[in-house]
Amino acid sequence: MHCFFSNIAYHLENGQWGDRFPYLMEHLYNGLLEKQYVKNAIKELHTVKKEFVHIPSQKVIWDIEDLSQQPPWGNDISEDITDLSNYFVTSEGEDLFDVLFEVLDVAKDDNENVELKQM
Question: Which one Pfam family would you cite for this protein (predicted)?
Fold first, then answer.
């Protein structure tokens, strides 16, 4: 997950963590997105996905705090991955954006907080 958020900060916030996307970067990333901010986070996530379409997969960074680090698989990725909007997947192979949108939509409908836990 740190890689995903690192790419948001690096590519879309000029390295200023949370500058444009405070609900994703300061609340969700830190483990708790309060229910009153879920709608804002959904809007931010739509913007991130839309803007990631314009960033080729070769521009992915692994860690904003150490730009010399590379993904363990390097550039050996599926041909289906064309840009950062479809680069990130869960360990089960699901598109990370789809999973996040689903979780946020359920939280919005149920008026619940979202907790992000590191595994």
Answer: Imm70
Q: Into how many domains does the chain fold?
A: 1
Which tokens belong to 76?
């050996």
> pTM for this one?
0.94
Dihedral sign for Cα atoms in the order 93, 96, 101, 106:
positive
Residue 56's H or E segment, with its range, is: none
What are the residues whose beta carbons fall under 8 Å from the beta carbon of 52, sequence distance 6 or more? Answer: 7, 11, 12, 83, 84, 85, 87
Instruction: Express each pLDDT in 1-55 by its tens digit.
Output: 999 999 999 999 999 999 999 999 999 999 999 999 999 999 999 999 999 999 9
- Placement of tokens 């595994």 in the chain: 119
Residue 96 in tokens: 């990370």
User: What would the DSSP string read from start to end of 76-93?
Assistant: ---TT--BGGGT-B-TTS
CA distances from residue 99 to 19, 58, 65, 69, 86 in whole angstroms, order as listed: 24, 23, 26, 26, 12
β-bridge partners, 83? 56
